[in-house]
């Protein structure tokens, strides 16, 4: 999991580049998933679009999750892989349905 600070902080922006994402991709095992945390508060829409587009140029299969929900979430979790990603429901031992 890549957990850099804000993309606009000096020295951190290079952790949101195609080259950085390629380094992560090239180190994944077969079927591996690269996970990127992105803080989106104080991040312009244009900058966010650039990060997302760059991530998708490296990983053909992407999922994006907004931590805290659509209204209040200030962070994104990006999943990227060379293989298709999927979520499935399964039952826990207490009978509750959960995503895996």
Walk me through what this model shows.
The protein contains 3 helices and 5 strands; from the N terminus they run H-E-H-E-H-E-E-E. With 100 residues, it is an alpha+beta fold. The strands form 2 sheets. Strands 1-3-2 form a 3-stranded antiparallel sheet. Strand 4 and strand 5 form a beta hairpin. The model has no long low-confidence stretch (mean pLDDT 83).
Core attributes:
100 residues; alpha+beta; three-stranded antiparallel sheet; two-stranded antiparallel sheet; 3 helices; 27% helix
CA(first)-CA(last) distance: 18 Å
Contiguous low-pLDDT stretches (5 residues minimum) are none
Total helices: the number is: 3
Computed structural class? alpha+beta
Cα-atom radius of gyration: 15 Å
Largest sheet, in brief, is: 3 strands, antiparallel
Mean pLDDT comes to 83
Q: How do the helices and strands follow one another from N- to C-terminus?
A: HEHEHEEE
User: Strands across the major sheet, in which order?
Assistant: 1-3-2
According to DSSP, the number of beta strands is 5
Strand content: 25-35%
Name the overall outline: flat
Q: Please give the share of residues in helix.
A: 25-40%
Oligomer: single chain
Topology:
Layout: H1 18-26, E1 34-39, H2 45-58, E2 61-67, H3 69-72, E3 75-81, E4 89-91, E5 97-99
Antiparallel strand pairs: 1-3, 2-3, 4-5
Helix pairs in contact: 1-2
Give a quick precis of the structure.
The protein contains three helices and five strands. It has 100 residues and is of the alpha+beta class.
């Amino acid at each position: 999991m890549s957990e850099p600070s804000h993309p606009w902080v000096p020295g951190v922006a290079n952790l949101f580049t195609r080259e950085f994402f390629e380094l992560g991709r090239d180190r994944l095992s077969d079927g591996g998933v690269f996970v990127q945390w992105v803080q989106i508060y104080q991040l312009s829409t244009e900058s966010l679009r650039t990060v997302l587009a760059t991530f998708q140029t490296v990983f053909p299969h992407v999922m994006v999750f907004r931590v805290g929900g659509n209204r209040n979430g200030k962070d994104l979790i990006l999943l990227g892989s060379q293989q298709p990603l999927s979520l499935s429901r399964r039952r826990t031992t207490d009978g509750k349905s959960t995503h895996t």
